[in-house]
Amino acid sequence: MADVVQTGDIVFRYGTGATGRFIVVALNEPFHISHCGVVVQKEDGSKHVIHSVSNAVSERDGMQMCTLDQFIENSRPRTIRAVRAKSKIENAGVLVARHAYQHLLNRTTFDHDFDVRDHSTIYCSELLYLILHEELKMVDFSRDSGVSEGVFGFAWAADTARFEHIVWDTNP
Questions:
Q1: Beta 10-13 vs 81-85: how paired, if at all?
Q2: Host H or E run for residue 106
Q3: Helical H runs in 28-171?
Q4: What share of the chain in percent tops pLDDT 70?
Q5: Which domains does the chain have, with CATH numbers?
Q6: Cα separation values, 77 from 33, 64, 98, 122, 172, Å
Q7: pTM, to two decimals
Q8: pLDDT tens-digit readout, 131-148
Q9: Do 172 and 10 form a contact (C-beta atoms < 8 A)?
């Protein structure tokens, strides 16, 4: 995985715990994903993931960074996926990563209400909505399922018109 993902790519997983199962069942989407984050590459070449996690499953609440390997370790087998937003913006991946870093530096806490319209707190897929749709205007999510209700899942990731599939194992 580390050899194919780049800075700014979006990685997904189906977590190993009860929270992951709850999210997959609640969203009832065509594929099993319960968590996502943004890939960033450090100066030493190591790859990490910036994501937002609840303190119900983590020592810290909200925005945090882990190694790509740690992100993968917390997934069910064959559920890791990665996409890259299709964009005409030069250095789009770097811009996505910079915005993710900014939210990390802001130490934004986790959105336990799962409300994609209020960004004072952020859940994992809301981070992508905020960066790609509102901040960079790279991807139009206005018609995606759940946005009008305030809940933003993961079905958008399957859209090959907007996203290049880097890793897309369809086994649940």
A1: antiparallel
A2: helix 92-106
A3: 68-73, 92-106, 124-128
A4: 98
A5: 10-167 (3.90.1720.10)
A6: 12, 23, 30, 27, 9
A7: 0.93
A8: 999 999 999 998 887 787
A9: no
